[in-house]
Specification:
mainly alpha; two-stranded parallel ribbon; two-stranded antiparallel ribbon; 9 helices; 4 strands; 6% strand
Length: 215
């Protein structure tokens, strides 16, 4: 399935019974007197945004999005390839700003690079390309570093955590330098301690006078 066909199927599926007639058919059915006034008016369908959770007013519970994050990412990818990014609703994988920028640049009904001029005209007049008002509030998370394209290490004090021995190396070096500074004195005290306890190491150790056997 081509990228344009995937976006087209998504739009037709979401429009469903609320699919709008083509502009040519609407023009023929309208009254001649009101044709000039409604020439620039385009009917808008109001549909719930399938990319965000919906609240059930009766039960008060939230229903998950109709499309998973993986499906949303795939649709956004195909819409970028076909130049139909403005036809998708906003969601976690595509922001309102991106859709507005795509619509301003005229990407709403631009066909793929291999499409002919005839198919472009047909797509522009097709009912599935009609504007839709997606209902529901999209809460966009502010991701640090997203504006510069580096979200991995944005807002962190250091780039890499490193191994534990690398993180504790400075502290160990300070303690080692402190101990080495008084090392001769500590060695002398260590030797004197055992000299006091056993002046003659080759002789049998002295035992207490009242020593008792354990049995």
């Amino acid at each position: 399935m081509s990228a344009l066909q995937a976006v087209k199927r998504f739009r037709i599926r979401e429009l469903g019974a609320t699919a709008l007639p083509s502009p040519a058919l609407a023009k023929t059915k309208s009254h001649p007197s009101s044709a000039s006034s409604s020439r620039h008016k385009v009917p808008v369908a109001s549909i719930e945004n399938p990319f965000i959770p919906t609240l059930n007013s009766k039960t008060g519970r939230w229903a998950p999005p109709k499309y998973s994050l993986r499906q949303q990412a795939l649709l956004v990818k195909k819409a970028r390839e076909s130049g139909t990014l403005a036809l998708l609703p906003p969601g976690p994988k595509i922001s309102v700003v991106e859709i507005a920028a795509a619509a301003a640049s005229g990407q709403a009904i631009v066909p793929g690079p291999l499409a002919s001029v005839k198919s472009h005209i047909q797509n522009a007049a097709a009912p599935w390309t009609r504007p839709i008002e997606w209902t529901g509030e999209v809460k966009e998370k502010k991701v640090l570093g997203a504006e510069v394209g580096n979200r991995l290490y944005a807002g962190k004090k250091r780039m890499f955590k490193g191994h534990k021995w690398q993180r504790t190396a400075e502290k160990r070096e300070k303690r080692r330098a402190l101990l080495m500074r008084s090392m001769p004195k500590r060695i002398k005290e260590f030797k004197q301690y055992y000299k006091r306890r056993r002046p003659h190491p080759l002789k049998p150790p002295r035992t207490a006078k009242n020593a008792k056997l354990p049995f």
